[in-house]
């Protein structure tokens, strides 16, 4: 059994399926080439030592002392994975972990899940713990939910661990059943344009948790296990909860419709569903901010086939399906709109669907 190695996991963009994962629904993410690498070495003294090339300082703690609140800041995402594995009864001891990554933090591209996934892969492989990728995703999710305190669903970790190159990952978050569906915009003469609005993406300030509570309360009032079990368009609920439910039910339907179109090779028809998703997130789920809405409006005005915010909302990124030869014009339109509104200049780039987490070849 090896004592050290380098492991890499990727960020993700969610094509569609926002705020459905914690409602037992469907999501359709792709992994990004942006990655987090963890150089890991086993220790024999029961100490976990975590450092990053992107941050000052070193976190050092005995694995027997790991508990929620024992580690704070970005290192909690790594330490939480070790804690979750040990809490599940797996024989995990001390490690040196050196983190290096280029997933933009705060952009809603799941830098946290990439870190968790890379650590989970590193620690289990080097400890001789055999877990399949779905179980690793559950471990990483528990680290984020129970150790860090972010009530996320399982989509981000699943995308980072299970994705295939040039495919989208259709994930049923209730059963963790997956289907890899071809997604290659370039082959259709298109591009997936990503706009990082530079509006800070914050999920720990209570709003994300509040939306989750709304959904659970609505499910309780309607007598279902989760909103995924609902159909129809109207429910006997307070007005705010009615809107939350309308988004989740509609978004699940949009995910499945996009999956059908991708299976049929009809990528160009996906655009209107992306835009409908954004409108629902803006009006019914109320998780957009001005930067997100301005970016979507500018992209659609410039001729994008469809555009939407991606991620949890309250900042982060917008994606748009655009013609390959219109990428520069679309990006310029967003920059101009941001300048006109006094917003921080956005960053624009095109995304390709990458493969999932893996051990890095020493020569690679």
From TrEMBL:
<feature type="binding site">
    <location>
        <position position="144"/>
    </location>
    <ligand>
        <name>Mg(2+)</name>
    </ligand>
</feature>
<dbReference type="InterPro" id="IPR006206">
    <property type="entry name" value="Mevalonate/galactokinase"/>
</dbReference>
<dbReference type="InterPro" id="IPR006203">
    <property type="entry name" value="GHMP_knse_ATP-bd_CS"/>
</dbReference>
<keyword id="KW-0067">ATP-binding</keyword>
<comment type="pathway">
    <text>Carbohydrate metabolism; galactose metabolism.</text>
</comment>
<dbReference type="Pfam" id="PF08544">
    <property type="entry name" value="GHMP_kinases_C"/>
</dbReference>
<feature type="domain" description="GHMP kinase C-terminal">
    <location>
        <begin position="260"/>
        <end position="339"/>
    </location>
</feature>
<feature type="site" description="Transition state stabilizer">
    <location>
        <position position="12"/>
    </location>
</feature>
<dbReference type="InterPro" id="IPR013750">
    <property type="entry name" value="GHMP_kinase_C_dom"/>
</dbReference>
<feature type="binding site">
    <location>
        <begin position="18"/>
        <end position="21"/>
    </location>
    <ligand>
        <name>substrate</name>
    </ligand>
</feature>
<dbReference type="InterPro" id="IPR022963">
    <property type="entry name" value="Galactokinase_bac"/>
</dbReference>
<dbReference type="Pfam" id="PF10509">
    <property type="entry name" value="GalKase_gal_bdg"/>
</dbReference>
<keyword id="KW-0418">Kinase</keyword>
<dbReference type="InterPro" id="IPR020568">
    <property type="entry name" value="Ribosomal_Su5_D2-typ_SF"/>
</dbReference>
<dbReference type="GO" id="GO:0005829">
    <property type="term" value="C:cytosol"/>
</dbReference>
<dbReference type="Pfam" id="PF00288">
    <property type="entry name" value="GHMP_kinases_N"/>
</dbReference>
<keyword id="KW-0808">Transferase</keyword>
<feature type="active site" description="Proton acceptor">
    <location>
        <position position="156"/>
    </location>
</feature>
<protein>
    <recommendedName>
        <fullName>Galactokinase</fullName>
        <ecNumber>2.7.1.6</ecNumber>
    </recommendedName>
</protein>
<dbReference type="GO" id="GO:0005524">
    <property type="term" value="F:ATP binding"/>
</dbReference>
<dbReference type="GO" id="GO:0006012">
    <property type="term" value="P:galactose metabolic process"/>
</dbReference>
<feature type="domain" description="Galactokinase N-terminal">
    <location>
        <begin position="5"/>
        <end position="42"/>
    </location>
</feature>
<keyword id="KW-0479">Metal-binding</keyword>
<feature type="domain" description="GHMP kinase N-terminal">
    <location>
        <begin position="77"/>
        <end position="162"/>
    </location>
</feature>
<feature type="binding site">
    <location>
        <position position="112"/>
    </location>
    <ligand>
        <name>Mg(2+)</name>
    </ligand>
</feature>
<comment type="similarity">
    <text>Belongs to the GHMP kinase family. GalK subfamily.</text>
</comment>
<feature type="binding site">
    <location>
        <position position="52"/>
    </location>
    <ligand>
        <name>ATP</name>
    </ligand>
</feature>
<keyword id="KW-0547">Nucleotide-binding</keyword>
<dbReference type="GO" id="GO:0004335">
    <property type="term" value="F:galactokinase activity"/>
</dbReference>
<dbReference type="InterPro" id="IPR014721">
    <property type="entry name" value="Ribsml_uS5_D2-typ_fold_subgr"/>
</dbReference>
<comment type="function">
    <text>Catalyzes the transfer of the gamma-phosphate of ATP to D-galactose to form alpha-D-galactose-1-phosphate (Gal-1-P).</text>
</comment>
<keyword id="KW-0460">Magnesium</keyword>
<keyword id="KW-0299">Galactose metabolism</keyword>
<feature type="binding site">
    <location>
        <begin position="106"/>
        <end position="112"/>
    </location>
    <ligand>
        <name>ATP</name>
    </ligand>
</feature>
<dbReference type="InterPro" id="IPR019539">
    <property type="entry name" value="GalKase_N"/>
</dbReference>
<keyword id="KW-0963">Cytoplasm</keyword>
<keyword id="KW-0119">Carbohydrate metabolism</keyword>
<dbReference type="InterPro" id="IPR000705">
    <property type="entry name" value="Galactokinase"/>
</dbReference>
<feature type="binding site">
    <location>
        <position position="208"/>
    </location>
    <ligand>
        <name>substrate</name>
    </ligand>
</feature>
<dbReference type="InterPro" id="IPR036554">
    <property type="entry name" value="GHMP_kinase_C_sf"/>
</dbReference>
<dbReference type="InterPro" id="IPR006204">
    <property type="entry name" value="GHMP_kinase_N_dom"/>
</dbReference>
<dbReference type="InterPro" id="IPR019741">
    <property type="entry name" value="Galactokinase_CS"/>
</dbReference>
